[in-house]
Amino acid sequence: MGLIIQGVLGAFHLIFSGNPDIIEISLRSVKVSGIATLIAFVFGLPIGLVIGLYDFKGKHIVRGLFNGLLGIPTVVLGLILYLILVPLGPFGSLKLIYTEMGISLGQAILVLPIVISLVAGSVSLIRSEIRELAITLGAGELEASIAVIREAIGGVILSIVAAFNRAVAELGVALMIGGNIFVKGSALNTRVLTTSIQMYTARGEIDLAIALGVILLFIVFGVSMISNVIQSRLT
Amino acid sequence: MDGLARDSRGISSATLLLVVIIVLMGIVGVVWYYQAQIQAGQRVVTISTTTSLYDTGLLETAIAPAFKERTGIELHFIPKGTGAAIQDAKNGAADAILVHARSKELKFMEEGYGVNRKIVAYNFFVIVGPQDDPAGIQGMDPIGALQRIAEYGQQGKVIWVSRDDGSGTNTKEINLWKAAGFNYEDIKNEPWFRNTGAGMGQTLNYASNQRAYTLSDTGTYLKFKKDGLIDLVTVVDKGEELINIYAIIIVNPEKYNKDFEGAMELEKWLVSEEGQKIIGDYGKDTYGVPLYFPVVKVLEQKDGDIYNWIVKYGFIEDNGKLTESPQKFRYKADISFFEEEK
Amino acid sequence: MTLIELKGISKQYGSQVVLEDINIEIKKNEIMVIMGHSGAGKTTLLRIMALLEPPSKGVYKYKGNPVKINGFFRKKVTMVFQSPVMFRGSVYDNIAYGLKLRGIEKKEIRDKVRNVLSLVELEGTEKATARKLSGGEQQRVALARALVLEPELLLMDEPTTNLDPTNVALIERVIMELARKNNTTVVIATHNLFQAKRLADRVAHLYSGKLVEIGDADKIFENPGVEITQKFITGELRSE
């Protein structure tokens, strides 16, 4: 117990002392996972909408597939992506191994099913009645779909938040694709919050690990709170 | 909401959605392009390495900055166990490896992946255990100590903790057990023998909590001890079998098109006066003792116990001679390799 | 004059037959009540008329021509559901939605919304959040949202089932007065016999997916032509 309290106190000291390394690592986490969320959103939104809005053959298989992928262990995905992205792998020529963009892409794949499932879920939940209401008021198919998306905005925001929070908090992809590289002053570093927490824990530097853990929690809670404010404004 | 728009808002919303998606994709593209530009503009040498070198901070905080200042080349160290580090290089992800397991290094070279092996540093493994030393092995030679631990272990009196992760430390441990007359694969399933499958730090923590013995590299042990994280003491730290030899191997340029020249620069720098001094000084301020010892002077003097041990445990046979790097595994090396008559 | 005509309409979901060979003509400006027990197929019949689903068999005609699912007729027909569905946003957003789809000027929309709100006795509620209104108020908004479009055909599916008597009276009054004034033809589905009597010009009785009787309200309530309608009117009929 003493260790934890000591760690938390040390953590706050580190946070408020404005340690440049910690700031850099935290900002990188937000950036890398933000881009991951963005990529997942760009692809996940249309796919989620199609699954949520339209009925087609094999739809429940597709939904089941994405729902199943929701829980994919990050180390497994990290390993698969590593084997794909290493120079010897099929996509080695993209030079994404041990880069920020590599982590972003990996995390994007990780959280894509979250975006798809939550968008599809919220859309299909409100779909039939809102779509029919719009149609009875004179809307065409496209206009009715837009009406559904407008109503599903809460679910869409939730999907973005959930995706970001999963991405920023995952370790497997960041470690295996990123490699936890840190050279002072380098623009090619890949150390993020989770990989540094893991590293400092392994090194026995518990107060640093806790400090970074506290920052990670702040980010996750902060994003959730902002989204709550947006959602309550929208409804 | 928009009274000016004569067309229905459904259409305009759809257009908006499309525009947003295109803009977002554009952002991703720009970031990707920008990163590729930086990558192209900065020469990087990637080294897969072992956690026992990485976790003390030597590589990132001492070697990388000094080397970058000297050469402009940025060093990216990817910490893994020795086994995984070698696999990483086999996958083409590294320009060089910096590891400490001779048998695995030799195999790596024999398979054609690595060339120009060079020993850069050494230190000693230590057997650590609980303060009261229930096996009574304090000051014994390592082989005798392990035999005693096994004996007491089988009687249920003491516990041994093994990393069992294919790391260099684990490889050393397997060899020590072999020298003590035990087959690692047999005893690893006995109840007194615990396997963590984890890094050195976690293994030390586990051993401390279980009041068990384990084999550790000096660097990690000293660090954890000083930070008060473990309640273990050094019980055996003398004996040639405990020597721990770190070597760099460059990825064979005929196998993969990596930055051979950059990696060779690093190799040369590591055994240069500057590189050796940085290795030898690291940790002195913090721990009172160095964590790693420079090796070049010892090899040049060709004399003393340490020299003999390094030759015995760190050199490789090559046509009746012993050497850091056998002739057939040397490639366009503008560097000399130490040799010793058998 | 006949506004719409259903000829031989059937609907089945898989092997389950919901409607069987329905033939109805609905005349311009009349209030047609489709009565019948719950599960008789009233909602499905209205949904087909509202173009929400296609019939399995049969022809749907508007002024003598077959209706196309995406044709102009879609903007002439509207429907009020049993339990009101509100869009996210204000009362104004809800009522203005259909008008915006029709490309009407903002100023005109504002006037129309104000007028229709006073008609359903919800003056000044434009800015209220639609989903925070009571059930009765929401149903009045739903009615206003339909009426503001001045539809040729207004379909109402059990519009007052879940409401208190005050709201029921208000909605019935609006239907009676305004539907006629606006040249709107109204089709109401209800299982409530008394509501049917209060509103109907003509009545159709649906039983187990079949149209058992159709005719002028006076005649059917006074002197039903078939026994099954007689039983429905006296309350002896049990749904299957």
CATH superfamily of the largest domain in chain B: Periplasmic binding protein-like II
CA-based shape of chain B: globular
CATH level 1 class label of the largest domain in chain B: Alpha Beta
- Any idea what the CATH architecture of chain A is? Orthogonal Bundle
For the residues shown, what is the average pLDDT of chain B? 91
What is the CA–CA distance across the termini of chain B?
90 Å
Shape of chain A: globular
What letter string, H or E per element, gives the SSE order of chain B? HEHHEHEHEHEHHEHEHEEHHHEHHEEE
Termini separation of chain A (Å)?
A: 44 Å
Largest interface: A-B, 45 and 51 residues
Polypeptide structure, described:
The complex is a heterotrimer of chains A (235), B (342) and C (240). Chain A is 78% helix and 0% strand. Chain A has helices at residues 2-16, 20-53, 59-69, 74-85, 100-136, 141-151, 153-169, 172-178, 193-203, 206-234. Chain A has a single domain, classed as MetI-like fold (Orthogonal Bundle). Chain A is built from 10 helices and no strands. In chain A, helix 3 (59-69) runs antiparallel to helix 5 (100-136), helix 5 (100-136) crosses helix 6 and helix 5 runs antiparallel to helix 7 (153-169). Chain A is mostly helical. Chain B is α/β, with parallel strands linked by helices. Chain B has 2 domains: 13-123 and 245-337, Periplasmic binding protein-like II (D-Maltodextrin-Binding Protein, domain 2, 3-Layer(aba) Sandwich), CATH 3.40.190.10; 124-242, 3-Layer(aba) Sandwich (D-Maltodextrin-Binding Protein, domain 2), CATH 3.40.190.10. Chain B is built from 15 helices and 13 strands. Chain B has helices at residues 9-41, 51-54, 58-71, 82-90, 102-110, 142-154, 168-179, 184-187, 200-210, 218-226, 260-270, 273-281, 284-287, 296-301, 305-314, and strands at 44-50, 74-80, 96-99, 114-129, 160-162, 193-195, 213-217, 233-236, 243-251, 293-294, 316-318, 321-323, 339-341. In chain B, strands 1, 2, 3, 4, 5, 6, 7, 8, 9 and 10 form a 10-stranded mixed β-sheet that branches. A 3-stranded antiparallel β-sheet of chain B has the order 11-12-13. The longest helix of chain B is centred in the first third of the chain and has 33 residues, at 9-41. With 240 residues, chain C is an alpha/beta fold. Helix content of chain C is 35%, strand content 27%. Chain C contains 8 helices and 10 strands. In chain C, strand 9 and strand 10 (210-216) form a beta hairpin. In chain C, helix 3 (106-119) crosses helix 4 and helix 4 (135-147) runs parallel beside helix 5 (165-181). The termini of chain C are far apart. In chain C, 43% of the residues are buried. Chains in contact: A-B, A-C, B-C. Chains A and B meet through helix 2, helix 5, helix 6 and helix 9 of A and helix 1, helix 3, strand 2 and helix 9 of B.
